[in-house]
Amino acid sequence: MAYSDKVIEHYNNPRNVGSLPKDDPNVGTGLVGAPECGDVMKLQMKINPQTEVVEEAKFKTFGCGSAIASSSLATEWVKGKTVDQALAIKNTDIVRELSLPPVKIHCSVLAEDAIKAAVGDWKKKKGVAAPATETATAQD
Amino acid sequence: MSVTQANATTSSTCWSCRAATAGQHFCPACGKIQPLPRETDYFAFFGLPRKLHLETAELEKRFHRLSWKLHPDNFVRAGEYERDLSLDRASQLNDAYRALRDPISRVEYLLAREGMRKEGENKQQAPPELLEEVFELNESLDELRSARQAGGDGNAMAALRSRLEAEQRNFEERLREVDADLDGVFSQWDAAIDAGAGEAARKKLMIRMNELLNRRSYIRNLVANVQRELGEA
Fold first, then answer.
1. What's the rounded mean pLDDT across residues B96-116?
2. CA distances from A37 to A107, A140, B110 (A)
């Protein structure tokens, strides 16, 4: 199967490969996978707690070229966006940008899921952290 | 092939003598070969119940009998329409046999037909507890790969190798576990078919089988990757 130029470009020069400290309260981690091809994708975002803007994004994907390109593009797109704007990214946007063929659409779905999972993880951390600070101030 | 004729006869009456055919390969009244119904069920094609513990010997017997009966050589003197039908059925026979003879492709076929395994945009759910492990093992494989490319030092490579070998044994064991679990659900499914179980009971079993197949495809891919990497190292 032939990959589009954009997929090849992201595959050869993936943006933002790496990882962020998982235990940092401002870092959200999304780990998702597609059993049909055995791909696994990790996407992390460092989110500013005041502005809710994504300051940094990293990914690591074990999978085909389309999965790598989809997650590479996703990290580029979320950077500088607010959490809500990042959540608004749809897999169809990725399909269009990378000209993914129908058999590779699930790769873009995976990237969208990874963004949602990372935000979900961040919100969970924030939710857990928030009541703790509340109790702390109540005791003061 | 003559499309109008085929469409007109996809119902279960013989295209030639109008007798009821009940979806059989040949008309029970006049013996003419029949067109394939629009949606052929592979189990029905072999006249077998939709069970997952198929007797391979029985399937093979039916396959050979049908290959002989449906073979295009038997229709060289028949009309063009019947020759086309024999080609259709003979190629369907091969697809059906390929799908049913292996237990994993058999259950995949069943689930796909029941709309339980959707590919592409309708994604499959990944087993969450496995993902973490899959990711870590892939990272170790990556390490081994880069260490080898860098011509890395012997001790580090050996340590990495033995860790991966341990992981390989671990995942091979897990693959056996999944296969045993699947086998157990196959038995439950077969019992449900025998008992004429309702939609809800069957659906529950299919969901379980789907989960197990998803686990299995991850583990199988990992085992294959580790084997390949260790083979090269």
1. 94
2. 10, 54, 19
pLDDT for B42-75, tens place per residue? Answer: 999 999 999 999 989 999 999 999 999 999 898 9
Of the candidates A99, A134, A37, A82, which has an alpha carbon nearest to the alpha carbon of residue B124?
Answer: A37
Domains of chain B: which residue ranges? Answer: 3-101, 128-232
Residue A64 is a catalytic residue: no
pTM: 0.74
Cβ distance of A110 and B213 shorter than 8 Å: no
Between CA B142 and CA B144 the distance in angstroms is 5
pLDDT (tens digit per residue) in B147-178: 878 877 778 788 888 888 998 899 999 999 99
Among partner residues A40, A105, A106, which is closest to B134 by beta-carbon distance?
A40
Burial B166-182, CB ≥16 within 10 A → b, else e: ebbebbbebbeebbebb
Residues in chain A, total: 140
Provide, as residue numbers in chain B, all residues whose Cβ is less than 8 Å from the Cβ of A31.
131-132, 135
> Which pLDDT value is given to residue B5?
40
Annotated catalytic residue, options A107, A109, A115, A118? A107
Task: Report chain B's terminal Cα–Cα distance, integer Å.
Answer: 55
**Cross-chain residue pair A35–B214, CB shorter than 8 Å:** yes
What is the CATH superfamily name and number for domain B3-101?
Answer: DnaJ domain (1.10.287.110)
> Where are the alpha helices (H) located in chain A, listed in sequence order?
5-12, 65-78, 83-87, 91-98, 105-139
